[in-house]
Amino acid sequence: MLERSHIQSTGFRNVGPVGERTGFELRLRQANYRGTRLSLIEGVTITVDGVLYPAAHNLVRIGSRVYTPAELDAATETRLAVGEYMTVIVPRPGGLAPGVHWVESAIGYRHPYFPPAHQSAVARDARHATIVMA
Amino acid sequence: MTGFRYGVSLYSYTDDLGTVMTLDDAFDHVADTGATGLEILGETSVPLYPEPPAAWLDHWFAQLERYQLEPTNFACWVDTRIQLDRKLTVAEGAEQIALDLRLAHRLGFKFIRPKFGVIDYNLTPDPIWEGAVERNLDLAQALGIIILPEIHAPTPIHHPVTEGYIAFIERTGTRNFGLMLDTGIFQDRPLTAWGGGDIEAIRKDAPDMVNGIKVPVEHLDDIIRYVPFIQAKFHHVDEDLHDHQIPWERIVPRLKALGYAGYLSSEYEGVRDPWVAIEQVRRQHALIRRLEAEWEAQHA
């Protein structure tokens, strides 16, 4: 099972070749109470140590498939189940320094059954998380 | 005298499911309250929705048998604004409802609650609802399922949304469409915690949802004949079995006087700390059972 926080300890790591890291990735627990069509996920913004990484540039991996924000919008028949996680892939040349970071996440969900002004709702989380290896 | 039927919606255990609770655990918690009815959210509890594996189906029926629970309502969604710039058509909405009717039937449910996308603050459903439902009335009848739209705050009982659903029932003469009443409409004191999302966000954007829309329980009289299922929404019951938001001491006698004998399916929506919901559901059942017993003693 997953940690209660949206942000998971496991899975926070640098990506790309060692010495030439292209970014980092982070697992987020499905924060909605129902399995959610990917087309209802409007993007994921990540902040690390105060540096904002906007949703438009982040990719999301679910299972073995990687989605751009536009590809999420098109994925109307694929769902992210409750009890599963998405991996957010964040571009950042050089990756993050090993050690403990303050990480914030904001998952944009569209809830068609909410009043139109509130259909886009953001599920937020913030906690410390640790990069083990450069 | 016919009494209430007691059930639990697994929505109550939101955030516990998938982190500290399995579906098997949930069966145990629900059954131990003395409830006989199990309500699930299809997209939450059915693995690989809408096509669960055969082995899971076998286990589902074995667990129902083991715990002597009956499936009540199958919650589902018609995601009308399915993409940022695309809405479902009537045909697509009808297809979604048909899919959920068939899956709910396979799992043994008697009700489905399709949650439609809405077009305004008062939760007026997307206009496709009527055609999408009407195309499924024959299927619902063949499967023995009643389709339930939800009457949920901030929509009260006396409101065009509710009246629109009733007009549909009257026009079609169907027995396979009825109102699901969410007892959150009776909330008459403010929320201090909200298990449906960010309370600060709704405090700012939808204060009605925090303060309660305080529908008089007497309004039940006007619609109860259309209500085959009640979702017993609540947020906090304390150690003295006092509910801090929902006036059960007025709701229960009214339902009893009206002869309601359907399900009260608990829907806890309070603090989302681990395992809190398990105890909260038990307290709510103890409270409502006590009020029901008191009413019956007075009217024996």
TrEMBL record, chain A:
InterPro entries for this protein: CGDB (IPR045959)
GO molecular function: lyase activity
Keywords assigned: Carbohydrate metabolism, Lyase
Ranges of residues in domain C-glycoside deglycosidase beta subunit: 2-113
Family affiliation: Belongs to the C-glycoside deglycosidase beta subunit family.
Name of this protein: C-deglycosylation enzyme beta subunit
Organism: Novosphingobium piscinae
From TrEMBL, chain B:
InterPro entries for the chain: IolE/XylAMocC-like, Xyl_isomerase-like_sf, Xyl_isomerase-like_TIM-brl
Keywords carried by this UniProt record: Isomerase
Domain called Xylose isomerase-like TIM barrel: residue spans: 27-276
GO MF annotation terms: isomerase activity
Pfam families to which the protein is assigned, alphabetical: AP_endonuc_2 (PF01261)
Protein known as: Sugar phosphate isomerase/epimerase
Native organism: Novosphingobium piscinae
PANTHER family membership: BLR5974 PROTEIN (PTHR12110:SF53), HYDROXYPYRUVATE ISOMERASE (PTHR12110)
Transmembrane segments: none
